[in-house]
Amino acid sequence: MQNHCGKCSQKSKQENHDDPDEEYAEGTRYPDGSVKLRNPHIELMDQDILYHLALGSGSHDLVEMFRDVKFVCMGGTPRRMEMFAYYIMKEIGYKLPTGTTLMDISQYSYRYSMFKVGPVLSISHGMGTPSIGILLHETIKLMYHSKAKDPIFFRLGTCGGLGVEPGTVVISDDAIDGLGNHSYSVPILGKVVQRPCKFDKKLTRELKALADPEDPYETTLGTTMCADDFYEGQGRCDGAFCDYSEADKLEYLEGLMKSGVKNIEMESVPFAALTNHAGIKAAVICVALLNRLKGDQVCTPKEVLNEYQLRPQILVARYIKKYLQTKGRLSSFEGHGSICVKSPRRFKLVQQESQTFE
């Protein structure tokens, strides 16, 4: 009789993965490394409509369109993620076929924008917890339907810094909500379910190591506070309502800083919790537009802010390039993110459903 230790069993399960050292939540991977959903109902459905992406498992050939995706990069606005798509295209040497251009794959949803550059998917997630939560559900399902193997998710964003200079890049190594909880609380069927916020520690370290000493700005690790509101939820004194003093605000912010919080934004908690629950490696990289200890409003010139917003993109591009070079996949891409229709009738129905405004 042979004895099999847990490590051997884990290695066997992961032997076909890109990185055999990766660990995944139980039940989130098939033997070939493709994403397995923690929802038995999806496999029983005739088709799964990704309503807010204007895609469907019955209408589109999602395997043909997205099977090669390795990196899913999310950011707030459609414009920012379109610019990132063009930026990463240049960085990895991706060439579009003659006569073609990047297209917004989710243009018919009028909610999110999606651009594909070889193994990189660039998607806008909107603002706040509900918006990014919806997108994460559908993007994780997209990875499942497309049979993408071991995808890595990044959120590229802006934030308010705590005790850091404007332009500082903050890599989140932890995330808390406005009450200091290290979990994402979701009311489900009348009960609050808490899912822990966890980032991949190895990925976080690798990103920090890619910060160049010659960069004209600091890159640091820290806890990120995720607020449910831009004004009072972040202790601002410039909203339509404010029932606290400037001194109260500063006392609160200084307390956060002393506990290790480096920045405040509005998406890190659901991003960390849902990617962790799906067994997906993920990281949040934000640039501070201001030091909240010195004010509430962003008064930096637009051209400077535009340069700031490139900084998280530069760091993630370094990671993607290094990964592809290590795997020998740099510049070896096929396809250009075109729409592959499987069922014209269902394709039309998905478009019509996604275009319906309530």
Automatic annotation (TrEMBL):
<feature type="region of interest" description="Disordered">
    <location>
        <begin position="1"/>
        <end position="34"/>
    </location>
</feature>
<dbReference type="InterPro" id="IPR000845">
    <property type="entry name" value="Nucleoside_phosphorylase_d"/>
</dbReference>
<dbReference type="InterPro" id="IPR010059">
    <property type="entry name" value="Uridine_phosphorylase_euk"/>
</dbReference>
<feature type="binding site">
    <location>
        <position position="236"/>
    </location>
    <ligand>
        <name>substrate</name>
    </ligand>
</feature>
<feature type="binding site">
    <location>
        <position position="234"/>
    </location>
    <ligand>
        <name>substrate</name>
    </ligand>
</feature>
<dbReference type="GO" id="GO:0009166">
    <property type="term" value="P:nucleotide catabolic process"/>
</dbReference>
<feature type="binding site">
    <location>
        <position position="111"/>
    </location>
    <ligand>
        <name>phosphate</name>
    </ligand>
</feature>
<dbReference type="GO" id="GO:0004850">
    <property type="term" value="F:uridine phosphorylase activity"/>
</dbReference>
<comment type="similarity">
    <text>Belongs to the PNP/UDP phosphorylase family.</text>
</comment>
<feature type="domain" description="Nucleoside phosphorylase">
    <location>
        <begin position="70"/>
        <end position="321"/>
    </location>
</feature>
<dbReference type="GO" id="GO:0006218">
    <property type="term" value="P:uridine catabolic process"/>
</dbReference>
<dbReference type="GO" id="GO:0005829">
    <property type="term" value="C:cytosol"/>
</dbReference>
<feature type="binding site">
    <location>
        <begin position="155"/>
        <end position="158"/>
    </location>
    <ligand>
        <name>phosphate</name>
    </ligand>
</feature>
<protein>
    <submittedName>
        <fullName>Uridine phosphorylase 1 isoform X1</fullName>
    </submittedName>
</protein>
<dbReference type="Pfam" id="PF01048">
    <property type="entry name" value="PNP_UDP_1"/>
</dbReference>
<dbReference type="InterPro" id="IPR035994">
    <property type="entry name" value="Nucleoside_phosphorylase_sf"/>
</dbReference>
